[in-house]
Design goal:
Layout (H helix, E strand, L loop, with lengths): L6 H16 L9 H7 L5 H28 L1 H25 L2 H30 L4 H29 L2 H22 L7 H4 L6 H5 L2 H21 L2 H7 L8 H26 L8 H20 L4 H30 L4 H8 L1 H18 L9 H32 L5 H6 L1
Helix pairs in contact: 1-5, 1-6, 1-7, 3-4, 3-5, 3-15, 3-16, 4-5, 4-7, 5-6, 5-15, 6-12, 6-14, 10-14, 10-16, 10-17, 12-14, 13-14, 13-17, 16-17
Length: about 425
């Protein structure tokens, strides 16, 4: 039986299934306390290592897997299903038997390969199906990655209340595996436009050694590192502020749902869609940098931190964290064209890989400076938000450098478009 093709059957729904599954990596913070309670061998460092390695391997796989996505979206989807599902299953086994080594290998390198391919594959596919609204398409594709937090966090919270932590992992392995397999079966994409296909193929050196690529890479790196610093320790921050992980579990789940899920998701949709209304595709990045700086500075001067004010701060930062990913594909499309979009986006996502090693460690070092009793929390969080504010100032500086460099180095696909 031959399945019907179209932007909804072959583009939208496989993107939803795949991105929702792979976006579950953002839900890792909810498992931490239960994993440690089940198997004390899982120290905070090892739990952070799982998260860091997953995102590091995501970025590095994307860097080298972009060409596979360009050649065959079907094959990339198949590898996503295999590696992502295998990674979750191995993680479940590792947690079940109390082996941090097995869990780290499963959640990190093995799942990370599936994450990298599963992140790249839907973006270009949906942008090609929705050629008239590429910014919206990229926003939807990457927002679906954040959808896992909005839907997945309550689901995981419910599973952890009714099952052991390793049973929850097994259940989620089956659910995500089915969704990724269905995505592989139905996904397809249209052909490139003639002028897009005619564009000259750029080598790795022609892309990554240009100033505009380097400066944009730094913008993305800082945005991700700051976002992951909060996302990886959000539950810890709420517990430090007096929300007991046992009595207030559902409150913590609710906060994490609306920050990593709601803020992350809505930010991607709104900011990426705004790119369809302007030729300055980098404009949302100005908004992200300035708003993030203002939020962190305001947080420092408010003082007397509560879990509600911290939730609001984390929500804003995560709103723009997600938007940074969603706005990137249209910026790359404007600068390099659609022909190599997945490949160049993969190169750019090495920023995610490095930020995954840096961002969580920034928060770990700062939050461990003082005791976690509520009277001592405000100075610690003030130091954390001051650090993030400084990072966003540097991000704004690199954004200005990117805009200047992009003016001197015009888009590489314009000649092909004019000739067509």
């Amino acid at each position: 039986m031959k399945l019907p093709k179209g932007r909804w059957v072959s583009g939208f729904w496989p993107m939803i299934f795949m991105s929702f599954s792979t976006g579950s990596v953002y839900c890792w913070t909810l498992f931490r306390e239960d994993i440690t309670a089940h198997a004390p061998a899982f120290t905070p460092f090892l739990l952070t290592l799982c998260f860091m390695l997953a995102l590091f391997c995501l970025g590095m796989t994307a860097a080298f897997g972009g060409k596979l996505v360009e050649r065959s979206v079907k094959r990339a989807s198949l590898y996503t299903f295999i590696f992502f599902t295998a990674g979750w299953l191995i993680t479940a086994i590792g947690v079940h038997i109390g082996s941090p080594l097995v869990a780290v290998i499963g959640f990190g390198p093995i799942q990370g390969i599936g994450l990298g391919l599963g992140y790249l594959t839907p973006v270009k596919t949906l942008m090609m199906w929705f050629d008239d609204k590429k910014g919206f398409a990229a926003g939807v594709a990457i927002a679906a990655f954040g959808l896992a937090g909005l839907v997945g966090n309550p689901l995981i919270g419910m599973l952890l209340q009714n099952f052991t932590v390793y049973q929850a992992f097994y259940i989620l392995t089956g659910l995500y595996g089915v969704l990724c397999f269905v995505a592989y079966v139905i996904i397809d994409r249209p052909e490139l436009k003639p002028y897009e296909a005619a564009a000259r193929t750029l080598s790795l050196k022609e892309v990554i050694f240009k100033p505009k690529f380097v400066f944009l890479w730094m913008v993305l790196f800082i945005n991700i590192a700051a976002g992951l610093a909060l996302m990886s320790h959000e539950q810890q921050i709420y517990i430090m502020l007096g929300l007991d992980e046992n009595l207030n579990r559902m409150m913590i789940v609710l906060f994490c749902t609306f920050t990593a899920g709601g803020g992350n998701l809505v930010g991607r949709l709104i900011m990426a869609s705004s790119q369809d209304k302007t030729n300055k595709k980098h404009l949302p990045y100005y908004v992200m940098s300035i708003a993030s700086i203002a939020t962190c500075i305001l947080a420092i001067f408010i003082g007397g931190f509560s879990h509600w004010s911290s939730f609001a701060i984390i929500f804003v930062v995560q709103f723009f964290f997600g938007a940074g990913f969603a706005c990137l594909p249209e910026i790359l499309n404007q600068q390099y064209g659609m022909k190599q979009l997945a490949t160049i986006q993969g190169y750019m996502l090495t920023a995610w890989a490095i930020a995954a090693l840096v961002g969580p460690q920034i928060a770990t070092m700062i939050l461990d400076i003082t005791p976690s009793a509520p009277p001592n929390v405000s100075p610690t969080l003030s130091y954390l938000y001051a650090t993030l504010a400084g990072m966003f100032v540097v991000q704004l500086g690199f954004l200005l450098l990117f805009v200047r460099a992009a003016k001197k180095d015009p888009p590489t696909h314009e000649v092909a478009s004019a000739e067509a």
